[in-house]
Amino acid sequence: MGAVHSNHVRLTAATARRAGLDVYALITPPGKPDVQGNILLDLVLGAKLVYINSVDEADEAVNKLVEELKFKSHRPYIIPPLELPASSVYWNMCL
Predict the structure, then answer these.
(1) Which of 24, 29, 40, 55 is the most buried (most CB within 10 A)?
(2) What is the pTM (predicted TM-score) of this model?
């Protein structure tokens, strides 16, 4: 999960894609922001952005995504959030 314009998500996406991994990033706050800045770079790098409503939904959203990916025979590797304000948490997931 990450704040809409998270540098951590952007750098994780760049590094993972360079290594040939798929990237899923859970993003807060909800809604799709304008495609600019780090959001644009995340998408150009091939990250799949999943928007969630709140930090409270993070664990459930991560678990659901992990199960979906495992069902498709992927092996997700979860990168937990950095220390952030309570209103802005994120997870990166690489395959």
Answers:
(1) 24
(2) 0.76
